[in-house]
């Protein structure tokens, strides 16, 4: 029953991200959209509730955290945009580096739960993502973005925060990159040094959007920004103007040219391996 609301949200958040508005305006629009969507989801849950435990777990694990993570992300971006020093490159860099340290501290504190989620484990889901376990896991007092006991579980907010912080990492990294364009350490920090993308950026964007369309990452809950950030980490590359690139791909006569080439090359390799 949530498909239509989430489809509208996904389209709208992509429109905001891809718009020509400045970062602060995007954050404000994103906050309003996320709050509006969460309120709509809350009304649906209050009206119809869930048919069974599996549906409840799916909602609090895979559906609500999407707009919730964007609410947290846009709120953090807005706070950063309003708080960052107005003058001087070095003061701005120091401010952003402090923000990065806060993110690292957050992930260090919550590494066990983050690992549980990122490994797609399920054995604790009835405790983490149903409302009947709230007494066993009280809310963290520092989390106060959008919280109602009847519309929250012990860990859905934390899972949304983890996803939001991954988005926020990307935001911090891009701002630092603009201030220190020659600092490759920004993209080397978490990357395996064995892999470097040497094809065209447009080809990589094709792959990323194909994976997003197929919904094979995080059970379809990974948003395009998170996937792009992960690929930048893996392949040691900065995908500037990725949204513009995607719209340019859509305007081409052969929209998925690189993916079609990959299919042909893989089929040829298989035939060669079989001695055909």
Automatic annotation (TrEMBL):
It holds the Pfam family RteC. It comes from the Bacteria. This is RteC protein. It comes from Salegentibacter agarivorans. InterPro entries: Tet_reg_excision_RteC (IPR018534).
